[in-house]
What we know:
Layout: H1 2-15, H2 20-41, H3 43-51, H4 68-72, H5 76-79, E1 90-93, E2 103-106, H6 108-125, E3 133-137, H7 145-152, H8 159-164, E4 165-169, H9 174-184, E5 188-191, H10 193-206, E6 214-217, H11 224-234, E7 238-244, E8 248-253, E9 260-262, E10 267-273, E11 276-277, E12 283-290, E13 301-310, E14 322-327, E15 334-335, E16 341-342, H12 344-352, E17 357-364, E18 370-376, H13 381-395, E19 401-405, E20 419-421
Parallel strand pairs: 3-4, 3-5, 5-6, 6-7, 17-20, 18-19
Antiparallel strand pairs: 1-2, 7-8, 8-9, 9-14, 10-11, 10-12, 12-13, 13-14, 15-16, 17-18
Amino acid sequence: MLFDVIRHFLSLQRSQWFDKKKLSQxxxxxxxxxxxxxxxxxxxxRELYSSIGLNNSPxxxxxxxITKEIIRAVPTxxxxxxxxxxxxxxxxxxxxxxxxxxxxxxxxxxxxxxDALRLRSLLAQGAKLTDKICTIRPVPIDKDFQIxxxxxxxxxxxxxxxxxxxxxxxxxxxxxxxELFKMWRPQVLSTFPSYLVRLIDFCRSSETHxxxxxIRTQGELLTEQTRKIIEEFFQTRVFDSFGAAEVGHIAWECxxxxxxxxxxxxxxxEVLRDGTPASPGEEGEIYVTTLYRYTMPFIRYNLGDIGxxxxxxxPCGRGLPLISRIxxxxxxxxxxxxxxxxxxxxxxxxxxxxxxxxxxxxxxxSDYVIEVYIKPRQGLEDAVxxxxxxxxxxLFPNTPFxxxxxxxxxxxxxxxxxxxxxxxxx
Length: 426
Protein backbone atom coordinates (compact mmCIF):
# COMPACT_ATOMS: atom_id res chain seq x y z
CA MET A 1 0.00 0.00 0.00
CA LEU A 2 2.68 2.51 1.01
CA PHE A 3 4.67 1.62 -2.11
CA ASP A 4 1.65 2.38 -4.31
CA VAL A 5 1.07 5.77 -2.68
CA ILE A 6 4.77 6.67 -3.12
CA ARG A 7 4.77 5.49 -6.75
CA HIS A 8 1.73 7.62 -7.59
CA PHE A 9 3.14 10.54 -5.64
CA LEU A 10 6.46 10.53 -7.52
CA SER A 11 4.62 10.41 -10.84
CA LEU A 12 2.37 13.32 -9.81
CA GLN A 13 5.36 15.30 -8.58
CA ARG A 14 6.81 15.14 -12.10
CA SER A 15 3.63 15.73 -14.06
CA GLN A 16 2.61 18.93 -12.24
CA TRP A 17 5.53 20.67 -13.97
CA PHE A 18 4.58 19.51 -17.48
CA ASP A 19 3.38 22.21 -19.86
CA LYS A 20 -0.31 22.53 -20.64
CA LYS A 21 0.00 20.75 -23.98
CA LYS A 22 1.55 17.63 -22.47
CA LEU A 23 -0.93 17.61 -19.58
CA SER A 24 -3.79 17.91 -22.08
CA GLN A 25 -2.46 14.91 -24.02
CA UNK A 26 -2.27 12.83 -20.84
CA UNK A 27 -5.76 13.93 -19.88
CA UNK A 28 -7.22 13.14 -23.33
CA UNK A 29 -5.85 9.59 -23.18
CA UNK A 30 -7.30 9.02 -19.70
CA UNK A 31 -10.61 10.58 -20.71
CA UNK A 32 -11.02 8.24 -23.70
CA UNK A 33 -10.19 5.29 -21.46
CA UNK A 34 -12.74 6.10 -18.73
CA UNK A 35 -15.51 6.80 -21.26
CA UNK A 36 -14.87 3.50 -23.06
CA UNK A 37 -14.77 1.65 -19.74
CA UNK A 38 -18.03 3.22 -18.56
CA UNK A 39 -19.80 2.34 -21.83
CA UNK A 40 -18.61 -1.29 -21.76
CA UNK A 41 -18.80 -2.01 -18.03
CA UNK A 42 -21.29 0.28 -16.30
CA UNK A 43 -24.97 -0.42 -16.99
CA UNK A 44 -26.11 3.15 -16.34
CA UNK A 45 -23.79 4.70 -18.91
CA ARG A 46 -24.28 1.99 -21.51
CA GLU A 47 -28.06 2.41 -21.37
CA LEU A 48 -27.80 6.20 -21.33
CA TYR A 49 -25.37 6.48 -24.23
CA SER A 50 -27.08 3.77 -26.31
CA SER A 51 -30.45 5.52 -25.88
CA ILE A 52 -29.12 8.60 -27.68
CA GLY A 53 -27.18 6.68 -30.34
CA LEU A 54 -23.64 7.09 -28.98
CA ASN A 55 -20.96 4.40 -29.36
CA ASN A 56 -18.18 3.55 -26.94
CA SER A 57 -15.81 6.32 -28.10
CA PRO A 58 -17.75 9.59 -28.35
CA UNK A 59 -16.26 13.05 -27.88
CA UNK A 60 -16.74 14.46 -24.38
CA UNK A 61 -18.95 17.32 -25.58
CA UNK A 62 -21.37 14.79 -27.10
CA UNK A 63 -22.05 13.18 -23.75
CA UNK A 64 -25.11 14.19 -21.73
CA UNK A 65 -24.67 16.18 -18.53
CA ILE A 66 -25.32 14.27 -15.30
CA THR A 67 -26.86 15.71 -12.14
CA LYS A 68 -27.09 14.41 -8.61
CA GLU A 69 -30.86 13.98 -9.05
CA ILE A 70 -30.26 11.63 -12.00
CA ILE A 71 -27.68 9.55 -10.10
CA ARG A 72 -29.89 9.35 -7.00
CA ALA A 73 -32.66 7.74 -9.05
CA VAL A 74 -30.39 4.89 -10.25
CA PRO A 75 -29.73 1.73 -8.18
CA THR A 76 -26.13 1.48 -6.97
CA UNK A 77 -25.56 -1.81 -8.79
CA UNK A 78 -26.14 -0.01 -12.12
CA UNK A 79 -23.65 2.74 -11.26
CA UNK A 80 -20.68 0.50 -10.44
CA UNK A 81 -18.56 -1.47 -12.87
CA UNK A 82 -19.39 -5.03 -13.84
CA UNK A 83 -18.19 -7.55 -11.25
CA UNK A 84 -17.86 -5.09 -8.39
CA UNK A 85 -18.98 -6.50 -5.05
CA UNK A 86 -19.88 -3.53 -2.88
CA UNK A 87 -19.11 -5.32 0.40
CA UNK A 88 -15.50 -5.84 -0.72
CA UNK A 89 -14.89 -2.18 -1.52
CA UNK A 90 -14.60 1.06 0.40
CA UNK A 91 -17.95 2.74 0.93
CA UNK A 92 -18.36 6.41 1.76
CA UNK A 93 -21.01 9.08 1.42
CA UNK A 94 -21.06 12.59 0.08
CA UNK A 95 -21.35 15.26 2.79
CA UNK A 96 -24.98 15.92 1.86
CA UNK A 97 -24.13 19.58 1.23
CA UNK A 98 -26.62 19.53 -1.66
CA UNK A 99 -29.29 18.05 0.60
CA UNK A 100 -29.00 14.85 -1.48
CA UNK A 101 -26.37 12.47 -0.04
CA UNK A 102 -24.93 9.79 -2.32
CA UNK A 103 -23.33 6.43 -1.62
CA UNK A 104 -19.84 6.24 -3.14
CA UNK A 105 -17.91 3.02 -3.91
CA UNK A 106 -14.15 2.88 -4.58
CA UNK A 107 -11.39 0.30 -4.40
CA UNK A 108 -8.07 0.45 -2.57
CA UNK A 109 -6.04 1.44 -5.65
CA UNK A 110 -8.27 4.44 -6.25
CA UNK A 111 -7.97 5.43 -2.59
CA UNK A 112 -4.16 5.23 -2.78
CA UNK A 113 -4.09 7.48 -5.84
CA UNK A 114 -6.34 9.96 -4.06
CA ASP A 115 -3.97 9.91 -1.08
CA ALA A 116 -1.05 10.67 -3.39
CA LEU A 117 -2.93 13.67 -4.79
CA ARG A 118 -3.49 15.03 -1.28
CA LEU A 119 0.14 14.42 -0.35
CA ARG A 120 1.32 16.37 -3.40
CA SER A 121 -0.77 19.40 -2.52
CA LEU A 122 0.15 19.26 1.16
CA LEU A 123 3.87 19.27 0.45
CA ALA A 124 3.47 22.01 -2.17
CA GLN A 125 1.71 24.16 0.42
CA GLY A 126 4.57 23.79 2.89
CA ALA A 127 3.93 20.63 4.89
CA LYS A 128 6.79 18.18 5.50
CA LEU A 129 6.77 14.39 5.56
CA THR A 130 7.90 14.53 9.19
CA ASP A 131 5.10 16.92 10.24
CA LYS A 132 2.37 15.95 12.63
CA ILE A 133 -0.86 16.63 10.77
CA CYS A 134 -4.13 16.92 12.69
CA THR A 135 -7.21 16.51 10.50
CA ILE A 136 -10.55 17.56 11.98
CA ARG A 137 -13.21 15.52 10.22
CA PRO A 138 -16.96 15.15 10.60
CA VAL A 139 -18.37 12.00 12.13
CA PRO A 140 -22.03 10.99 12.58
CA ILE A 141 -23.27 11.85 16.06
CA ASP A 142 -24.04 8.20 16.86
CA LYS A 143 -20.64 6.79 15.85
CA ASP A 144 -18.15 5.71 18.48
CA PHE A 145 -15.04 7.90 18.66
CA GLN A 146 -12.52 5.06 18.94
CA ILE A 147 -14.08 3.04 16.11
CA UNK A 148 -13.97 6.08 13.86
CA UNK A 149 -10.29 6.69 14.62
CA UNK A 150 -9.28 3.09 13.96
CA UNK A 151 -11.06 2.88 10.61
CA UNK A 152 -9.55 6.18 9.53
CA UNK A 153 -6.06 4.95 10.33
CA UNK A 154 -6.30 2.11 7.83
CA UNK A 155 -5.44 4.39 4.90
CA UNK A 156 -3.36 7.36 3.80
CA UNK A 157 0.40 7.13 4.43
CA UNK A 158 0.33 3.55 5.72
CA UNK A 159 2.34 3.16 8.91
CA UNK A 160 3.14 6.90 8.86
CA UNK A 161 -0.52 7.66 9.42
CA UNK A 162 -0.65 6.03 12.83
CA UNK A 163 2.12 8.25 14.15
CA UNK A 164 2.05 11.39 12.04
CA UNK A 165 -1.55 11.92 10.89
CA UNK A 166 -4.28 11.99 13.48
CA UNK A 167 -7.95 12.36 12.48
CA UNK A 168 -10.18 13.86 15.17
CA UNK A 169 -14.00 13.97 15.05
CA UNK A 170 -15.69 17.36 15.03
CA UNK A 171 -16.92 18.18 18.52
CA UNK A 172 -18.68 21.14 20.13
CA UNK A 173 -16.39 20.66 23.14
CA UNK A 174 -13.39 22.77 22.15
CA UNK A 175 -11.62 22.01 25.42
CA UNK A 176 -10.94 18.44 24.31
CA UNK A 177 -9.47 19.64 21.05
CA UNK A 178 -7.32 22.29 22.70
CA GLU A 179 -6.00 19.68 25.13
CA LEU A 180 -5.09 17.47 22.16
CA PHE A 181 -3.35 20.33 20.34
CA LYS A 182 -1.28 21.16 23.41
CA MET A 183 -0.39 17.52 24.07
CA TRP A 184 0.36 16.40 20.49
CA ARG A 185 1.59 19.76 19.09
CA PRO A 186 0.78 19.23 15.40
CA GLN A 187 2.56 21.48 12.91
CA VAL A 188 -0.31 21.29 10.39
CA LEU A 189 -4.04 21.64 11.03
CA SER A 190 -6.46 20.58 8.28
CA THR A 191 -10.13 21.36 8.86
CA PHE A 192 -13.18 23.44 7.93
CA PRO A 193 -13.43 27.25 8.05
CA SER A 194 -16.43 27.19 10.41
CA TYR A 195 -14.48 25.03 12.86
CA LEU A 196 -11.54 27.44 12.85
CA VAL A 197 -13.80 30.40 13.57
CA ARG A 198 -15.23 28.58 16.60
CA LEU A 199 -11.75 27.56 17.73
CA ILE A 200 -10.62 31.19 17.57
CA ASP A 201 -13.65 32.30 19.60
CA PHE A 202 -12.83 29.70 22.25
CA CYS A 203 -9.15 30.63 22.39
CA ARG A 204 -10.00 34.30 22.83
CA SER A 205 -12.54 33.70 25.57
CA SER A 206 -10.26 31.27 27.44
CA GLU A 207 -7.04 33.21 26.73
CA THR A 208 -5.56 30.13 25.08
CA HIS A 209 -2.55 30.38 22.77
CA UNK A 210 -2.13 27.83 19.97
CA UNK A 211 0.38 27.76 17.13
CA UNK A 212 0.43 25.91 13.81
CA UNK A 213 2.99 26.31 11.06
CA UNK A 214 0.36 25.75 8.37
CA ILE A 215 -3.44 25.60 8.19
CA ARG A 216 -5.36 23.94 5.37
CA THR A 217 -9.08 24.41 4.85
CA GLN A 218 -11.56 22.25 2.97
CA GLY A 219 -15.22 21.30 2.70
CA GLU A 220 -16.75 24.77 2.98
CA LEU A 221 -16.52 28.14 1.29
CA LEU A 222 -13.48 30.06 2.54
CA THR A 223 -14.16 33.78 2.21
CA GLU A 224 -11.31 36.27 2.15
CA GLN A 225 -12.69 37.80 5.35
CA THR A 226 -12.56 34.42 7.14
CA ARG A 227 -9.08 33.73 5.76
CA LYS A 228 -7.88 37.08 7.14
CA ILE A 229 -9.36 36.36 10.59
CA ILE A 230 -7.67 32.94 10.76
CA GLU A 231 -4.30 34.16 9.51
CA GLU A 232 -4.19 37.16 11.84
CA PHE A 233 -5.07 35.08 14.89
CA PHE A 234 -2.73 32.14 14.27
CA GLN A 235 -0.07 34.19 12.49
CA THR A 236 0.28 31.66 9.69
CA ARG A 237 -0.85 31.23 6.10
CA VAL A 238 -4.06 29.44 5.19
CA PHE A 239 -4.30 27.29 2.05
CA ASP A 240 -7.65 26.17 0.71
CA SER A 241 -8.45 22.96 -1.15
CA PHE A 242 -11.47 21.74 -3.09
CA GLY A 243 -12.80 18.23 -3.50
CA ALA A 244 -15.87 16.03 -3.56
CA ALA A 245 -16.54 12.50 -2.33
CA GLU A 246 -17.74 11.51 -5.81
CA VAL A 247 -14.45 12.29 -7.55
CA GLY A 248 -11.89 12.89 -4.79
CA HIS A 249 -9.34 15.70 -4.50
CA ILE A 250 -10.00 18.24 -7.27
CA ALA A 251 -8.04 21.48 -6.81
CA TRP A 252 -5.77 23.30 -4.35
CA GLU A 253 -3.94 26.54 -3.73
CA CYS A 254 -0.17 26.67 -4.15
CA UNK A 255 1.95 29.24 -2.23
CA UNK A 256 1.22 31.97 -4.82
CA UNK A 257 -2.54 31.66 -4.10
CA UNK A 258 -3.52 33.20 -7.44
CA UNK A 259 -6.11 30.45 -7.89
CA UNK A 260 -6.71 26.72 -7.41
CA UNK A 261 -4.59 24.23 -9.37
CA UNK A 262 -6.85 21.58 -10.88
CA UNK A 263 -5.53 18.01 -10.61
CA UNK A 264 -5.84 17.50 -14.35
CA UNK A 265 -4.23 14.04 -14.16
CA UNK A 266 -7.16 12.95 -11.98
CA UNK A 267 -10.18 14.96 -13.12
CA UNK A 268 -11.42 16.61 -16.30
CA UNK A 269 -13.15 19.83 -15.27
CA GLU A 270 -15.61 21.86 -17.31
CA VAL A 271 -17.09 25.21 -16.34
CA LEU A 272 -20.35 25.53 -18.25
CA ARG A 273 -22.84 28.33 -18.60
CA ASP A 274 -26.24 27.13 -19.84
CA GLY A 275 -24.60 23.92 -21.03
CA THR A 276 -21.81 25.53 -23.06
CA PRO A 277 -18.22 26.35 -22.03
CA ALA A 278 -17.93 29.59 -20.10
CA SER A 279 -15.36 32.09 -21.31
CA PRO A 280 -12.24 32.65 -19.19
CA GLY A 281 -13.17 34.92 -16.32
CA GLU A 282 -16.89 34.09 -16.66
CA GLU A 283 -18.80 32.25 -13.94
CA GLY A 284 -20.25 28.85 -14.71
CA GLU A 285 -21.35 25.58 -13.15
CA ILE A 286 -18.59 23.09 -12.41
CA TYR A 287 -18.84 19.68 -14.10
CA VAL A 288 -16.23 17.00 -13.51
CA THR A 289 -15.24 13.66 -15.00
CA THR A 290 -13.14 11.34 -12.88
CA LEU A 291 -10.10 9.94 -14.71
CA TYR A 292 -8.99 7.24 -12.28
CA ARG A 293 -12.08 5.97 -10.46
CA TYR A 294 -13.15 3.02 -12.59
CA THR A 295 -15.19 1.34 -9.85
CA MET A 296 -17.90 4.00 -9.91
CA PRO A 297 -17.20 6.53 -12.68
CA PHE A 298 -18.72 10.01 -12.76
CA ILE A 299 -18.77 11.54 -16.24
CA ARG A 300 -19.77 15.18 -16.88
CA TYR A 301 -21.17 15.32 -13.38
CA ASN A 302 -22.58 18.54 -11.93
CA LEU A 303 -21.02 19.22 -8.53
CA GLY A 304 -23.48 22.03 -7.80
CA ASP A 305 -20.67 24.56 -7.37
CA ILE A 306 -19.91 27.73 -9.30
CA GLY A 307 -16.40 28.53 -10.54
CA UNK A 308 -14.35 30.68 -12.91
CA UNK A 309 -11.69 29.26 -15.26
CA UNK A 310 -8.45 31.25 -15.42
CA UNK A 311 -6.25 31.32 -18.52
CA UNK A 312 -3.37 32.82 -16.55
CA UNK A 313 -0.04 31.08 -16.08
CA UNK A 314 0.74 30.54 -12.41
CA PRO A 315 3.95 32.23 -11.24
CA CYS A 316 4.86 28.96 -9.48
CA GLY A 317 5.58 27.38 -12.89
CA ARG A 318 3.15 24.47 -12.63
CA GLY A 319 1.33 23.57 -15.81
CA LEU A 320 -1.81 22.47 -13.96
CA PRO A 321 -4.79 24.63 -15.03
CA LEU A 322 -6.21 27.24 -12.67
CA ILE A 323 -9.72 27.89 -11.43
CA SER A 324 -10.78 30.90 -9.39
CA ARG A 325 -13.57 31.80 -7.01
CA ILE A 326 -15.31 28.54 -6.12
CA UNK A 327 -18.74 29.32 -4.71
CA UNK A 328 -21.51 27.27 -3.24
CA UNK A 329 -20.45 25.59 0.00
CA UNK A 330 -21.99 27.99 2.47
CA UNK A 331 -23.41 26.32 5.57
CA UNK A 332 -24.54 27.70 8.92
CA UNK A 333 -23.92 26.48 12.46
CA UNK A 334 -26.92 25.22 14.40
CA UNK A 335 -27.01 26.38 18.04
CA UNK A 336 -28.70 24.25 20.68
CA UNK A 337 -30.95 25.83 23.30
CA UNK A 338 -28.13 25.50 25.87
CA UNK A 339 -25.82 27.54 23.63
CA UNK A 340 -23.69 24.60 22.40
CA UNK A 341 -22.96 24.84 18.65
CA UNK A 342 -23.53 21.85 16.38
CA UNK A 343 -21.16 21.91 13.44
CA UNK A 344 -22.91 21.74 10.05
CA UNK A 345 -20.94 18.77 8.78
CA UNK A 346 -21.84 16.78 11.90
CA UNK A 347 -25.50 17.33 10.98
CA UNK A 348 -24.93 16.42 7.34
CA UNK A 349 -22.95 13.26 8.07
CA UNK A 350 -25.49 12.11 10.67
CA UNK A 351 -28.50 12.47 8.37
CA UNK A 352 -26.88 11.38 5.12
CA UNK A 353 -26.59 7.75 6.22
CA UNK A 354 -30.33 7.26 6.65
CA UNK A 355 -31.47 4.69 4.12
CA UNK A 356 -34.35 5.99 2.03
CA UNK A 357 -33.83 9.69 2.78
CA UNK A 358 -33.81 11.28 -0.68
CA UNK A 359 -33.36 14.94 0.29
CA UNK A 360 -33.31 17.05 3.43
CA UNK A 361 -32.91 20.59 4.67
CA UNK A 362 -32.48 21.92 8.22
CA UNK A 363 -33.61 25.45 9.10
CA UNK A 364 -33.25 26.94 12.57
CA UNK A 365 -35.55 29.83 13.42
CA SER A 366 -34.45 32.76 15.54
CA ASP A 367 -36.36 31.27 18.52
CA TYR A 368 -34.06 28.18 18.37
CA VAL A 369 -36.78 25.89 16.98
CA ILE A 370 -35.32 23.61 14.28
CA GLU A 371 -37.39 22.66 11.24
CA VAL A 372 -36.19 19.52 9.45
CA TYR A 373 -37.61 19.15 5.93
CA ILE A 374 -37.30 15.67 4.45
CA LYS A 375 -38.19 13.91 1.22
CA PRO A 376 -38.26 10.13 1.84
CA ARG A 377 -38.32 7.53 -0.89
CA GLN A 378 -41.80 6.30 -1.74
CA GLY A 379 -42.93 3.56 0.62
CA LEU A 380 -40.37 4.44 3.32
CA GLU A 381 -41.99 7.60 4.67
CA ASP A 382 -42.71 6.33 8.19
CA ALA A 383 -39.39 4.52 8.64
CA VAL A 384 -37.37 7.52 7.43
CA UNK A 385 -39.28 9.98 9.62
CA UNK A 386 -38.73 7.76 12.67
CA UNK A 387 -35.00 7.49 12.03
CA UNK A 388 -34.67 11.24 11.38
CA UNK A 389 -36.43 11.94 14.69
CA UNK A 390 -34.10 9.53 16.50
CA UNK A 391 -30.97 11.17 15.12
CA UNK A 392 -32.26 14.69 15.70
CA UNK A 393 -32.70 13.86 19.38
CA UNK A 394 -29.01 12.96 19.47
CA LEU A 395 -27.99 16.05 17.50
CA PHE A 396 -30.16 18.61 19.27
CA PRO A 397 -30.80 17.55 22.91
CA ASN A 398 -33.15 19.85 24.86
CA THR A 399 -33.80 21.81 21.67
CA PRO A 400 -37.24 21.72 20.00
CA PHE A 401 -37.39 20.41 16.45
CA UNK A 402 -40.16 19.74 13.95
CA UNK A 403 -39.97 17.20 11.12
CA UNK A 404 -41.86 18.06 7.95
CA UNK A 405 -42.23 15.90 4.85
CA UNK A 406 -42.18 17.85 1.58
CA UNK A 407 -41.50 17.52 -2.14
CA UNK A 408 -40.62 21.20 -2.51
CA UNK A 409 -36.90 21.95 -2.52
CA UNK A 410 -35.73 25.12 -4.19
CA UNK A 411 -32.69 24.69 -6.45
CA UNK A 412 -30.62 27.76 -7.24
CA UNK A 413 -27.65 28.23 -9.55
CA UNK A 414 -25.63 28.94 -6.43
CA UNK A 415 -25.42 25.73 -4.47
CA UNK A 416 -28.44 24.69 -2.42
CA UNK A 417 -27.95 25.46 1.27
CA UNK A 418 -28.92 22.36 3.30
CA UNK A 419 -28.46 24.06 6.68
CA UNK A 420 -29.66 27.56 7.50
CA UNK A 421 -29.66 29.13 10.96
CA UNK A 422 -31.11 32.46 12.03
CA UNK A 423 -29.61 32.16 15.51
CA UNK A 424 -26.53 34.30 15.96
CA UNK A 425 -23.49 32.33 17.12
CA UNK A 426 -22.02 34.11 20.12
